[in-house]
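BUG: 3D viewer hangs when loading the predicted structure for this chain

Environment: internal workstation, default settings.
Expected: structure renders.
Actual: progress bar stalls at 90%.

Input used:
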Amino acid sequence: MGKIGPGRGAVTSQIRFEGSISETRPTVRPRNELQRNQLSAFGEYVAEILPKYIQQVQVTCFNELEVFIHPDGIIPVLTFLRDHTNAQFKSLVDETAVDVPSRPFRFEIVYNLLSLQFNSRIRVKTYTDELTPLDSLVPVFQAANWYEREIWDMFGVFFADHPDLRRILTDYGFEGHPFRKDFPLSGYVEVRYDDEVKRIVAEPIELAQEFRKFDLNSPWEAFPAYREPAELPKLEAGEKKPETK
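Structure tokens produced before the viewer hung:
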């Protein structure tokens, strides 16, 4: 390799310095009307083929196609998106859930699909409540196995015909579903190692009272080390200081 002359190196460093200063505006994805129109047309095409299951189609502000379907349409709609010639969404990138307790169907299940053939993505959404099970997507996408186990563990959404629906993140015997909005932040039990029984035990959580009371003026005053010392009673003339035991 040849050595870079002093003049060339100086020009390069100057260009980088000027570029870092001039780029003050945030990076915004440019609006692509052609891509937006193509996604909108494809969404309408899918809705016309499967009108029984598709309830709404929209393109977000970031040119992302979203399809809202009835819970009964999980298998037929996603099978169509995987196998149809004009779709070929053969990769299940992610499957997750959202909990909105104010809705009648509080859980929104989200499927993110990728088509390597057309370099395109689609988001499919459906809904359910605490008691109504959904069809498992494992027969269509094997990748949905652990995703649905995670949703069952965190949100408590049951998937019918799942080959191995059990918890995947929490411990054995865990009660409740941590990602539900009505699940307390502190949880119900605490896990610790008991030196007497030589094993890990789960006990009902106990929080000291001082951690429950906070003064909004200064959050540090809730802890003993940062509290002001208690005022001692003043002694009058001729009185002796009481003895401390």
